[in-house]
Amino acid sequence: MAEAVMNSLAVTTTSNGYNCQYHSYPLRSHISRTPCGCFLYCAYRSVGRSKKRESGFYGLKMMSLSKGWHPWFGVAEPRMGVLIRSTSGDYQRFVPHDSCLEFGSVYGQEKDDFDVGSLRKKLPPWRNVSTVQQTSDFQTGVASQPLMVSERTITDENELHFLEERDEELLSKRILTLSRSNKVKSALELFSSMKFSGLKPNLHACNSLLSCLLRNEKVDEALRIFESMKATEMTTAHTCSLILKATADARGTDAALDMFEELLQISNIRKDFDAVVYNTMISACAKVNNWVQAEKIWKSLTCDGHVGTTITYRLLVCLFVRCGQNELALDAYHEMVQNGLKPAVDAVQAIIGACAKEGNWDLALSVFQKMLNSGLKPNIIACNALINSLGKAGKVSLAFKVYGLMKSLGLLPDAYTWNALLGALYRANRHADALRLFEDIQIEQCSVLNTHLYNTALMSCQRLGLWDRALQVLWQMEDSGLSVSTTSYNIVIGACEVARRPEVALQVYEHMVHQKHAPDTFTLLSLVRSCIWRSLWDEVEEILNRASPNGSLYNTAIQGMCLKGKIDSAKKLYKRMGEHGLKADGKTRAMMLQNLPKNSVRREKRRDKDMKAPDDTICRLKHSETIAFV
Q: Which of 27, 443, 499, 614 has CB atoms 3.0–4.6 Å from 467's, for a disulfide?
């Protein structure tokens, strides 16, 4: 007899032209489990014109629900209710067991109440039960587990469940387990069902669910849960940190800053803030290099009585150095040291760079030594910054000591290292040592040679007057495939000028033009000076004729001619200078006055007086008007 009950059953009735069929589905679960059957109420009607029978759902879907218990064949059987829902999804209602004793009573009761608008106001928003498997696998849990019935959640994508279990701690543990297992939908449905049933998940479960949602990029659902946690005052610093980071990643730093400002206005939330929350916002600002907001958050952290962590100052120092705010970076570093915190490697390296840019080489060296004493290994960038800072301060020996220490640490020098060392030797007027170091670089690491290193070597040759060595370096530079700039040619021409070799300078100039490099004013000035020293006046004239009129060139040529006794040539050039509308400087005018005849000197002075005459005339007129008025 018990087996007969477990078998499926189909009953068909006919009323008012509709054939109604009842389908029951047996359960495969053990009799100790809670039995639950489901059926579909189907309607058939005949079509007279086509003389065909069409079948379809009458618009009702039903599922039996556990309502109460009574003994039946010695087995605990639940009393059944019926969940009736229209296929359109607009109507649904739970009918208790007492109303289902007769099939007609269900139909008669629901026929009159099938008002979608009115029922929607009275009844809970049950979800379409068509998702329930209608084969025979709709199984319930064991007696110790709650019986859950599908309902609609806060969102349209999830379901609410009827919960027999009322233990909040047990349900919270289930949310925690589901969240850790990354079962987003199940965890969210259980959370929503608890809230719908008036149960309150604990804080640990809520935070775990938030983390699960954010891992799966469900930011909107996470924000809804966060708002409900705010309403019940269940937020912690960890909660705020999670939601602020997610907001910054999904909607941008500005949105996260707005949320942070709102949370600061809520006193019961702000009092729970810790350094981690502030670190989250500083990190979000650092990603977009917003050092202004990062500084405000840093000050807010201090004003609220919190002490920054190593991560706080690491973020601040690196951000400030990256944005060129070296003073703020040093302030953050000093505060970190005062709080007894050990700086991280990247923070120390950033501080060394900041000190180098500020010219504070002694602090940079002190930080570097502390870094080594604490067992931290500096990188090549920090070493280069320190070497460059020491070289600019003239501490060449210290710079080479840092270089030796860098090699002992297994760091391979790069182009920045060599440039800093060569620059240190050049600024210390150790030009011969700079050239020897350049030769060593060519032998050991010729691959790192660049334009800056070649130009430093060329400038050392210029200072020493080694025009032949300068030419050799220039040819090597061209053979290396590097782009030779006008500056490099100017330095070589300058070396020829120092060595009094104008012929070589002119050859370099012709080669430069042949290489399609346009000479600038410095090129032509160096050539003019070289030719004047060797009295190559034709070449001077040719240079002036080929170049566009330039006051500096004419002043240099006139002064050189006067010093060499070429007064007539200087006068002609001075006259041509006036014709071009160029103005002679004070030294040129003084030399010309010294070499002009006395009558010419008088005319020159009279010309200067006439140029000032209008001003004198105006003064006399004003004086006359004043006397007349008196």
A: 499
CA dihedral for 619, 625, 628, 630, sign (positive or negative): negative
Instruction: Decide: 162 and 143 in contact? Cβ < 8 Å.
Output: no
- CA 253, 255, 259, 265 torsion-angle sign: positive
Coil, helix or strand for 65? strand
CA distance linking residue 532 with residue 563, whole number of Å: 10
Q: 178 vs 142, 160, 166, 191, 265, CA distance in Å?
A: 19, 16, 18, 11, 34
Distance CA 509, CA 524 (A): 9
CA distance 623 to 630: 11
Structure token pair of residue 311: 């991560």
Six-digit token string for 383: 């070493």
Give yes or no for a contact between 465 and 431, defined as CB atoms under 8 angstroms apart: no
Q: Are 79 and 57 in contact (CB under 8 A)?
A: no
Residue 500 φ then ψ, to 5°: 60, 50
Give me the amino acid identity at 494.
G
Distance from C-alpha of 435 to C-alpha of 469, rounded to nearest angstrom: 10
CA distances from 18 to 12, 44, 62, 295 (A): 10, 5, 18, 77
No. of H helices and E strands in the chain? 30, 8
Q: Which of 289, 311, 406, 285 is nearest to 352 (CA)?
A: 406
* Residue-level pLDDT at 267: 87
Which of 111, 81, 84, 107 lies closest to 13 in space, CA to CA? 107
What's the confidence (pLDDT) of residue 456? 96
DSSP state of 630: -
∠ CA 617-622-624, nearest 5°, is 95
Helix (H, G, I), strand (E, B) or coil at 85: strand
Distances (CA, A) of 158 to 197, 241, 243, 459, 464: 16, 26, 22, 76, 84
146: nearest Cα among 126, 171, 172: 171
Residues 306 and 275: beta-carbon distance below 8 Å = yes
Give the helix/strand (H/E) hosting 548: none
Q: What is the C-alpha radius of gyration for the chain, rounded to an integer number of angstroms? A: 47
Nearest C-alpha neighbor of 431 from the set 383, 463, 473, 397: 463
User: Helix, strand, or coil here: 144?
Assistant: coil
Adjacent-strand bridge partners of 24: 9
**CB-based contacts of 427: which residues, under 8 Å, 6+ apart?**
391, 392, 394
Classified as helix, coil or strand, 425 is helix
Residue 622: C-alpha distances to residues 179, 455, 591, 618 (Å):
96, 62, 38, 6
d(CA 318, CA 354): 10
Degrees to nearest 5, angle at CA 460 with 455 and 463: 125
d(CA 121, CA 36): 28
H helices present in 448-579, as ranges: 451-464, 467-479, 486-498, 502-514, 521-533, 537-546, 551-563, 567-579
Q: Please count the residues of the chain.
A: 630
SS3 string of 304-356? CCCCCCHHHHHHHHHHHHHCCCHHHHHHHHHHHHHCCCCCCHHHHHHHHHHHH
pLDDT less than 50: residues of the chain: 1-156, 599, 601, 611-630
* Pairing, β 38-47 against β 18-24: antiparallel
- Cα–Cα distance, 60 to 22 (Å, whole number): 12
Element (H, E) at 142: none
